[in-house]
Amino acid sequence: MESAAAKHDVFQAIADPTRRELLRLLGERELPLKDISGRFPMSRTAVSKHLRVLAEAGLVHERKVGRETRYRLDADPLLELKRWLDYYERFWENKLSMLKHYVESEPGQSAEGLKLAEPSEFNPGQAEGKKPGTGQGQAEGL
Predict the structure, then answer these.
(1) pLDDT of 109-126, one tens digit each?
(2) Fewer beta carbons within 10 Å, N or C terminal of the chain?
(3) What is the 3-state secondary structure of the chain?
(4) Are 71 and 33 contacting, i.e. CB atoms less than 8 angstroms apart?
């Protein structure tokens, strides 16, 4: 018997591309297993296993209609994922804001207002921690 701790969470459920496609498909409408499995290049049993993982995460609900089992999306558990992503969005927004500032800044100035090195000022030997003017890191005879 499977314990509650061993059940799949939303993050595990959406980790697989087949399950993400199942969610997209079920987001359109409720479908029976035979219609769902016909859209995937795998056995009906394999599709059922993916649906079981989604159901254990609370993302999919099933109901019996006669001899047929129908599946539908329940997007409420995706709110947990959205909250998690919202927390990290502030980091992305900060990086995008810095990039925008950098791109819109005057030529030769970084986002912090520091002068960027011109290509003619760059010494490859210095980038590797070698002393300037020693010839180390430069092609001989140049």
Answers:
(1) 554 554 444 444 444 444
(2) N
(3) CCCHHHCCCHHHHCCCHHHHHHHHHHHHCCEEHHHHHCCCCCCHHHHHHHHHHHHHCCCEEEEEECCEEEEEECCCCHHHHHHHHHHHHHHHHHHHHHHHHHHHCCCCECCCCCECCCHHHCCHHHHCCCCCCCCCCCCCCC
(4) yes
Q: Compute how many other C-beta atoms are within 10 angstroms of the C-beta atom of residue 21.
A: 13
Q: Global pTM?
A: 0.60
The two three-digit tokens of residue 40, written as one number = 């995937």
Contact 10, 77 (CB under 8 A): yes
**CA-CA distance, 42 to 36, in Å (whole number)?**
11
| Of 44, 46, 45, 52, the residue nearest 8 (C-alpha) | 52
pLDDT, tens digit (0-9, with 9 covering 90-100), for 17-76: 999 999 999 999 999 999 999 999 999 999 999 999 999 999 999 999 999 999 999 999
CA count, 13 A, side-chain hemisphere, 117: 8
Q: Which tokens belong to 24?
A: 């997209």
User: Residue type at 23?
Assistant: L
